[in-house]
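ARCHIVE CARD
Drawer: 12
Card no.: 0347
Subject: one protein chain, sequence and derived structure
Cross-reference: see card 0346
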Amino acid sequence: MRVGLDYRPATGFPNSGIGRQNSALEDAFRAHPDVQLQLFSVAPFDHPIRRIAHCPRWATPLDGIHRLPERLRFEALFLPQALRDAEVEVYLGNFNMGLPIGRKPEGVRYILQLHDLFQLTLNNAHGSKVKATIYGQTDRLSIGHSVRVADRIWTPSQFTADETVRLFPQARDKVRVLPNLVEGFSAEPVDLDTPLPERYWLCVGTREPRKNMPWFVEAWQVARRQFPKTPDLLLVGGPDGLSSKQRELPGLHIVSGISDGQLHQVYRQAERLWHPSYGEGFGLPVVEALGVGTPVAVASGSSLDEVTPADSPRFSPTDQSALIRLMGVLSTADAEDPEPLKAWAKNYGVEAYRRRFDELLEELR
């Protein structure tokens, strides 16, 4: 089976969640004995990806891969003919959209890996209202096109699968769940340049409004006043969305740009990971925390319900009073046995991922 893989995420933003899943797909395809893998991407003229992937004759800056004109040039002017020339039988788009535009090559089947649909259902972070409007309209068209032409749609959670069917009922029979691969940390734990607090809770990923971080920090601030043993709070990902007053709160620590080894250390030393997002397509930080034996507490109502052990604390992402009470309880909770948490995380390891991947690929034979 000759398979083509959209390699733009791994080329342009390899350390992002989508970029890492792009690499996971590449490794799974290469491990399958019946697959001949071809990569398709864009890049500057001097980028090494051009030596291993099919790329257009024009150059694309790495920070421009997301831009609409570059996407359309690749998906409409380059990709259909490139797939024919490479004699691809199955093509997988990992870009949350991005399947080829134009007449579908005869005998080719398309797979769309759809990570989430928050581009369509929630307000996301954009530089201006004009950009938000433009991206909202073009994302709806692009995702709608890819959902329509896909032969299979792979989602990382049942939550995203259900959202896909809700928004695109005609896609019901195409949707399958392939949970994300979470391999854990390859780098050994490394201390940060600034020492960590003796006790702290942790939040990872703070940019998008759906991460709910200002609301969560406000609740934590109140909990600190009401419950003296409430730990410090460490945010990994930057201060986006927080008010200037919140950024200066005593006990709040904000870090960004840390290495994989430093992130490993941050997870290991945290008393608990909190994930207050009201919209998640998978919830990678939850599984990463569990993988090192760190307990979690998560907001209910999205995919976080699926990736979290049943007995882990949950809270409504809109009921701040209940969250504050939960913080009070957990501020004095006994330490949990890390081994059951690590065992749960193995449900998202390489063995489980490859087993499900092979099942879904077999459907296309």
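Annotation on reverse: Residues 200-347 form a domain with the Rossmann fold fold (CATH 3.40.50.2000). The mean pLDDT is 95.
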